[in-house]
Design brief:
By secondary structure, the chain is mainly alpha-helical. The protein has a single domain, classed as Orthogonal Bundle (Arc Repressor Mutant, subunit A). It is built from 6 helices and 3 strands, in the order ααβααββαα. A 3-stranded antiparallel sheet has the order 1-3-2. Strand 2 and strand 3 form a beta hairpin. Helix 1 crosses helix 5 and helix 2 packs across helix 5.
């Protein structure tokens, strides 16, 4: 099967390089997500902590950092913005008064729901025209690609 992507000025070796293609797909995905989230006052960066809290429940800030790809200073900035937006609340930890427990507000749970739906729609759009078997195979191949890069 010979699939020709949209005409772009891409070096021929890059056009068949898995790393380039995955990176390009990620940029397009991220751009589309930001467009979908913008009407709700959200960005993909803000969505990460919201979904993590929605999935795991209230967490210490340090645990949010450990559970994500976001470093401490960036996470602190994201949480400050989410707090200012009324999407999270921070309370003093009973175990460690220096640490704050971060949790979603009702508005934050709604934002996580909206963001989660946008992610599902974006992924479905990316798989348009794929059979269920093709989609499952792609996921397996991408998991292997990630595992190979993680070994480095």
């Amino acid at each position: 099967m010979d699939i020709k992507p949209k005409k772009v000025d891409t070096h021929p070796e890059a056009a068949i390089a898995p790393g380039y293609l995955v990176n390009h797909a990620a940029r397009l995905f991220n751009r589309g997500m930001d467009v979908a989230l913008r009407p709700h006052g959200l960005t993909l960066a803000l969505l990460g902590p919201l979904l993590l809290l929605s999935w795991k429940g209230a967490m210490l800030q340090r645990d949010l950092v450990r559970s994500s790809a976001v470093k401490q200073p960036a996470m602190a900035a994201l949480l400050d913005k989410l707090d200012a937006m009324g999407l999270i609340k921070r309370t003093a930890s009973m175990a460690d008064r220096r640490a704050a427990l971060v949790d979603l507000t009702d508005q934050g749970r709604e934002a996580a729901r909206i963001g989660g739906e946008a992610l599902v729609e974006a992924n479905q759009r990316g798989l348009d025209g794929f059979s269920a078997e093709d989609a499952a195979h792609l996921v397996l191949l991408l998991q292997r690609l990630v595992a190979n890069f993680e070994r480095e």
